[in-house]
Amino acid sequence: MFQVDDDDLLPVGTATPSTATISNFVFSTLGDVDPNAPSFPFFNWEDCWGYINGEDKAAPDVDCPDDTDEGATILDCFTQAGTLEDGDLEMEPLNFSCFIDGGGTTSSLDAGVHYYDLIPFQVDRTDYYTILVSDDFGSTIDESAIALFQGGFNPSNPCENIIAFQDEPIDDIIPPLADDETYIRISLPLIAGETYYLWVAADDDISGPAGAGDYTVDICPDENGRVGLFSSTTVLNPQTWEPMVINTTVLWPRRDVSLTLPLFCEDFDLIYNNPASLDVTGRPVVSDNCDNSVSVSFVDTYSAAGDCAPIVITRRFTATDDKGNTTSCTQLITLNRPSDLDVEFPPRTVPIECDEQFATLPNGNPHPSHTGYPFIVTVSGIFNLADDYCNIGASFVDRARVNVCEGAFKFVRDWTVIDWCDGDNIAVDAQVIKVGDYTPPTVVCPGQDYDWDGDLDPLVFSVSPFGCTASFSTPLPDVTDNCSDWEVRTEIVTEVEVDVVNQYGQVTGTRTDTVVVRVIPWDAPTRLVSGIPAGDHYFRYTVEDGCGNKVVKYCPFSVRDLVEPTAICDDDLTVSIGGADLARIYAEDIDEGSNDNCGEVSLAVRRTGVVLDQFGRVIPFICGNQVSPWGPFVDFYCCDVGRTITIELRVRDTGGGENICWLDIVPEEKVKPFCYARTR
After folding, report:
1. 553 near 477, Cβ under 8 Å?
2. Strands 408-419, 469-473: parallel, antiparallel or unpaired by DSSP?
3. Do 106 and 100 meet the contact criterion of CB atoms below 8 Å apart?
4. Distance of alpha carbon 344 from alpha carbon 128, whole angstroms
5. Distance in angstroms (rounded) separating the CA atoms of residues 528 and 4
6. Which CA distances in Å does 97 have to 93, 192, 410, 469?
7. Contacts of the segment 226-233: beta carbons below 8 A, 24+ positions apart
8. What's the CA gap between 318 and 311, in Å, rounded?
C-alpha cells in the first residue's frame, strides 16, 4: 500500500487539500498473485519513497443549446388580474359582425350569452404596445377572447369603436400567436391621452364549463411607455390664487413576462458574434471534473444561399478549463425570411376627432404615421413597414371619402403586403378611418349658488301668488362640443309613486314611475311653461350634435311655495273682562279670512303687556311690558283694563312661509258688581 501526498490536486468536490490513496500496487515473491509469473528470488526488502504528480487531462463536458430559429425576449409589462363570474356584464358577441372573424382553426366564440369584463386604461406615450391575456377557464380548447375599443364602448353598437379583436386558441400557429404560446396576444400602436377599453370574455358561453374563471392581463410597451389611468384637475393655488394643474396618476403594477418569437434576417446584428444574444438563443451547459469556473467562448460564422434564403449562423462554443483542456460544440441559429403570416396589420378602425392634431397626406387624409402601418413583432422590438423589413414591404390605397356630417368623413384604406421572395404570398387588409365628431357634447346643468359656497345648487322656482303652480322660462343647460353645433330637446319630468296591483286587483306594493310633465322642442318659439306643480322635478335634456352624437342629462330642480300667506285681522274687536278677572281670545277670533295660495294655514296669536317667568311663560293676572309667546290664545286681566294692548296674528302655510297682522285693543270691564247684604 502506497500513500501519495498530493500537490494542488483537487478532486471533484470541495476544493480543499486532499490525499489520494493508491491500492493497486501488489508485490509478491511467491507467485500467488499471478501463478504464471516467475518467482522472485528472496531479497531483504528495504523501504523507499518518492513523489507521484496527479494531472487533470480530462476536457470539460459541454452541452450546446438546441438549434433554433426562435429567440426569447423579456417584456416589462403592466399587469391586472380579473375574474369572469356570475353577476358580470353579459352580451351575445356573435350578434355583431366585428366579433365573427376572430376565430382560429379549432376554436371560436360560441353562440349565446357570454360574461365579459371591460377594463379601462390609458398610456402616457404614443408607441406600440403588446397586450397579453392568459386565463384559467378550465379548458385547453376554449380559451379567452379579447377586443380593444378606443374612446368608448357601447354594448348596443360595439363595432363603432373597436380597433382590434383576437380569438385564437393557444395551440394555433397562425399569427399573431407563436406556437404553444400561453397567451392571447395583440400588438398595435396606442396613442397617449386616449382612453382604451379592453374587453375580456371566454370563448365558451355562460352555460359552458369554461365560460368563467380567472384571467391575467399584461400590457407591455415596446419602449418606455406606462400603463394606467392619468387625469388632471385645474384648481386655484391657495397662495397665488392662480389656476394650477394637479395631475393624478394610477399606474398598473409591473412584472416581467417572457415570450418566444421567431428570428428574422433583420436580427442578424442582434445575434452575430454578440455575447448579449446568449439570453436570446440560449447558453451551453458546462461541467468539468476539476474546474468549477470553466470559461466559455464562442465564434459565429454564417452562410446564406441568396437574398431569399435563411441566414444560418453556425455558433461554435469552446469550453476551456483552468488546465487548458478544451471541448467544443456547435449550435445552428436560423434567421428566417418573414412571410405575410408574420405581419400584423394596424387597427381595423381608427376614429380621429376633428379637433385632433395629426399629420396628413397631400390629399388631406391622415398619414399612416398617425393611423398605423403594418408591422412585425420581433425579439428586437416592433418594426413597422414604413420601410421594408427583410423581404417584406407594404403599400396602401385610400378609397373615396364618404361624408358623414359637416366636417366629418370616413374612408377605407386598403393595405397590401408583398413578399418579393414569394410572388404568391400577398396579404391584404382593409382599415376604416373615421375623421369627425365622435364625442357627445358636454352638458352642465343650470343652477345657482344659493348658499355662496362656490358650487351651483339646483334651481328653485316659486309658485304664483294666485295658485299652487309655477310659471317660468325653462333654462338651457351649458353645452360645449368639440366640433359641431347641437340641438337641445327639453322635457320636464317628475317621479310619482304608483300602486302595483296583482291579477286579483290587490295592491301588492308601489313602484316609481317617471312622468313627462312638459316637452319643449329644440326649435320651440318660446321656452315659457306654466302649471308646473309644487315638488321636486327634473329637466331631462337630450343634446345631439350635428354628427348624431347624443347625450341625455337629468338636472334636478324644485318648485316651492315661496309666496307668504295672506294675514287678515279683525280690526273691530273689543274685549271685555269677564268674571273671575279673566278674558280669553283665540286666534280664530281674530282671523278674518287669512289664506294661502297652496292650501291650509295655521294660526297663532300673542299680545303685549305681560310678565314672563324664567321659562318664558306668562304669569297670570300680572300686567307688565313684555310680549307673550305664540300660542292658540291670549288672556286678559283686570290690570289690562284701560291700557292699549297690541295683539298679533301669525299665519303660516304648509311650506313654512308666514305673515302677520295686528290690531290694538283697549280691554274694558263691563261686568256689574255683585252686592251681598251683610247678615247679622
Report:
1. yes
2. unpaired
3. no
4. 12
5. 118
6. 8, 28, 19, 52
7. 226/78, 226/123, 226/124, 226/125, 226/251, 227/78, 227/121, 227/122, 227/123, 227/129, 227/251, 227/252, 228/78, 228/121, 228/122, 228/124, 228/252, 229/120, 229/121, 229/122, 230/122, 230/124
8. 22
515-532: pLDDT as tens digits: 888 999 988 888 999 999
Contacts of 161 (CB under 8 A, 6+ apart): 149, 150, 151, 152, 153, 154, 349, 351, 438
Amino acid at 132: L
CA angle 7, 12, 14 (to 5 degrees): 80
CA distance 331 to 665: 122
Distance from first CA to last CA of the chain, Å, rounded?
167
How many whole angstroms separate alpha carbon 453 and alpha carbon 119?
A: 36
DSSP element (H, E) containing 216: strand 213-221
CB 313 within 8 A of CB 300: yes
| C-alpha cell of residue 533 | 306643480
Q: Fill in the DSSP letter of residue 368.
A: H
Name the DSSP letter for residue 66. Answer: P
CB 366 within 8 A of CB 360: yes
Neighbouring residues of 305: CB distance < 8 A, sequence distance ≥ 6: none
How far apart CA 490 and CA 472 sit, in angstroms, is 14
Rounded to 5 degrees, φ, ψ at 558 are -130, 150
- Residue written as cell 393611423? 371
User: Within 568-637, where are the H helices?
Assistant: 587-590
Q: Is the dihedral of CA 288, 290, 293, 294 positive or negative?
A: negative
81 CB burial (10 A radius; 0-12, 13-18, 19+)? exposed
The radius of gyration of the chain's CA atoms, rounded to the nearest angstrom, is 47
Question: Which stretches in the chain have pLDDT values below 50?
Answer: 1-18, 29, 31, 102-107, 169-181
Determine the Cα–Cα distance for residues 153 and 162; give it in Å rounded to an integer: 8
Q: What is the DSSP string of 18-33?
A: -EEEE------SSS-S
d(CA 469, CA 461): 10
Global pTM value = 0.62
Q: Is residue 154 a contact partner of residue 165, using CB atoms and an 8 Å limit?
A: no
Q: Are strands 227-236 and 243-251 parallel, antiparallel or unpaired?
A: antiparallel
In a 10 Å sphere around its CB, with 0-12 CB exposed, 13-18 middle and 19+ buried, how is residue 634 labelled? Answer: buried
218 grid coordinates: 399584461
CA atoms within 13 A on the CB side of 36: 0
Which pLDDT does position 664 carry in this prediction?
Answer: 93
Interval 343-370: pLDDT, tens: 888 888 888 887 778 889 999 899 999 8
Name every residue whose Cβ is closer than 8 Å to that of residue 45 and which is 6 or more positions away in sequence: none
List the one residue out of 438, 413, 441 whose CA is nearest residue 356. 438
CA 254 from centroid of its chain's CA atoms: 17
